[in-house]
Design brief:
23% of the residues are buried. The chain has one domain. It is elongated. It is mostly helical.
Length: 152
């Protein structure tokens, strides 16, 4: 994990830009629509002019977060909107998707929107403290490296 950060620093990328990329990565990873995080990474990375390979690398580290939070965000979104909880079984959903993708979209489209709504309200708030944590750690690492060079 340190090597890609060192490479970015050696290329002149600012600590703030690296910290922002690292902080946004888990937020994007938690997006509650299976198979959409790469596209979201490309969109966000392009808008914020981030190093896309670096963003995708760090996003992939948080893939288990994505799988673990899909149902959490859907349930929160259903609660926010007063919608009934749909039965949620990944194998059942995959069967329904394979049988008729259009019907699947009609049946579960609103559920996905509920999850996206909950994610949009909650997940970005994690990026702020993560940014400061990563910035602190990178600066600490840089200071340690700088001190090692001065004592050599």
């Amino acid at each position: 994990m340190v090597k890609p950060i060192k490479n970015q620093l050696s290329r002149g990328v600012s600590v703030e830009k690296i910290s922002l990329t690292m902080a946004i990565s888990p937020v994007i990873s938690a997006f509650p629509v299976l198979g959409s995080t790469n596209l979201l990474s490309l969109l966000v990375g392009s808008v914020l002019r981030m190093n896309l390979p670096f963003l995708l690398l760090f996003k992939s580290l948080f893939y288990p977060l994505h799988l673990g939070l899909i149902l959490v965000f859907i349930r929160i979104g259903e609660s926010i909107n007063g919608a009934p909880h749909i039965p949620f079984s990944i194998p059942q959903l995959l069967v329904k998707f394979k049988e008729d993708p259009m019907q699947f979209a009609r049946d579960f489209g609103m559920t996905a929107l509920y999850g996206i709504e909950a994610w949009a309200l909650i997940a970005p708030w994690f990026a702020i403290p993560l940014f400061f944590i990563f910035r602190y750690l990178i600066k600490k690492y840089m200071n340690r490296k700088s001190n090692q060079k001065q004592t050599s």
